[in-house]
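INFO batch 0412 | record 1 of 1 | parsing
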Amino acid sequence: MPESNDVDSEILKKVINDTRRRTKGLFGLNIMMAISDFNDHLKVAIEEKVAIVFIGAGLPLRVPEIISVDRARSCFTNLVPKISSSRAAKAICKFWDSHYSITPDAIVLEGPMAGGHLGFAMENINNPDYCLEVLLPEVINTVKPYEQKYGRAIPVIAAGGIFSGGDISKFLEMGAKGVKMGTRFVATKECDVDSDFKQVFLNCRKEDLVLINSPVGLPGRAINSKFLTDLAKGIRKPLNCLWKCLKTCDLKNASYCIAEALSNARMGDLDNGFAFAGANAFRIKEIVSVKELMAVLVDEFNSARGFTV
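INFO prediction complete | emitting C-alpha cells
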C-alpha cells in the first residue's frame, strides 16, 4: 500500500488540477508548517506551479532549503509567510537574506481578530497594543531595508477581522498592498462546506465567538458549539489518532482531535465539531454569491474613498 503522505500528495494534486479547470485566474494554497507532511505539500505546490503559497502556523526560516535554494529563487510560485509581528517579519527576512540571498515574495500580517489559529499569546489577543492597526506600520518599516537591498517590493498583506470595503480602504491607506479575507467568504454560495456550517455563521451572535486552546499549541477563535461547550466543561472527546497529522499535537494530553472536529463541522456535524471564524463573523446576515459579495465590497470601498460611479 502507498504511504499516507503519498496518498495525500496525490489528493492535493487532484484538488489543484480540479481548481485549475474551474478558473482562468490565479489561485493559491494555505499550508500550515504544523502539519506532518508540510514538506511534501510544499513540493507539490511548486511542481504544479500554484501561483502563491501562504505559509502559516510556524516560522518558515528554512523553507527555501526544502525545495532547494536555487528553485526558491526562480520558481513560479510565490512564497508568502503568514506572521503576526514585526519581530517575526524581521527574523524571516534576515535569515533568508543572510542564508539564501532572497526575500519572501510577500508577507501576510494576520492580526488578532482573525479566525482559526492565532499567533498571539491568549492575554494579548484583546490588547490594543497588538491590534492590526498598530502592527501594520511596524511590519511595513521592517521590510523596507530588504526591499531597498534587493530592489524589489515585499508587499505586506493585511489580514484578520477585515470585513468590509471600508476596512479594505483603511488598510490600503495605511500602506498595505492588499488584504486577505476568509470569514466573509464562508457565507457564499460557492463555498463548498455543508449548508449547516454556513447557517452557524448566519446564526452567530457576537457573544458566540470564543477563544479556545487548540491541540496545535496555539489559541484560536471559533463559533461556540455543543462540542466546545462540552470541552469547556472538561469532557474529553474520544481520540483515535490514525496518523499524527500535526507535528505539534500532544496526543497524550489532547482532549480531542482538531482535524476530525473541523472535518465534522465542514460536513455539517456541529455536535461533533466547530467552525473557526473571525471576530466579525456575527455581522454576516445572508448567503450570497461571490460575484454579489465582490460588488458589495467594491461599493463599500468606493464609498469609503468618496468615489462615485
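INFO post-check: The chain has twelve helices and ten strands.
INFO record closed
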